[in-house]
Amino acid sequence: MVTNNTSFYGLGRRKSSIAKVKMTPGTGKVIINRREPGQYFPNKIVIQDMEQPLELTNTKTLYDINVVVSGGGFTGQSGAIRLGIARTLIKINPDFKKILKQRKLVTRDARCKERKKFGLYGARRAPQFTKR
């Protein structure tokens, strides 16, 4: 399955965030932009969301994960990391694809912010209508 000197790479995107994930066989240490997840993300819910593919495949303590993430906010970055980890796990073991696909962790969430249109205050908010 995995030799000791191999590294596996995956890319994840969500909203305007991009995460580059590198997984190597190890003890389960996670580094995000040279920091621990507890220091990087403000709350534990975001961290649990990010680690969901590892918990489903029971590989949380088997690989060291190094992530470089940029753009967006915490939720978008967490989603990008989650997708990157899921894609990397599938590269490591293709049998994981069935488990991850059932939980919809392999599909890229294509929803993005809608652009602002001219004549409006935002994407859809129109100026107040006056009858007279």
Automatic annotation (TrEMBL):
GO terms for biological process: translation. GO terms for molecular function: RNA binding; structural constituent of ribosome. GO terms for cellular component: cytosolic small ribosomal subunit. Keywords: Ribonucleoprotein, Ribosomal protein. It comes from the Bacteria. InterPro entries: Ribosomal_Su5_D2-typ_SF, Ribosomal_uS9, Ribosomal_uS9_bac/plastid, Ribsml_uS5_D2-typ_fold_subgr. The keyword Lyase does not apply. NCBIfam families: PRK00132.1 (NF001099). Belongs to the universal ribosomal protein uS9 family. This is Small ribosomal subunit protein uS9. It comes from Mycoplasma amphoriforme A39. The lineage of its organism: Bacteria, Bacillati, Mycoplasmatota, Mollicutes, Mycoplasmataceae.
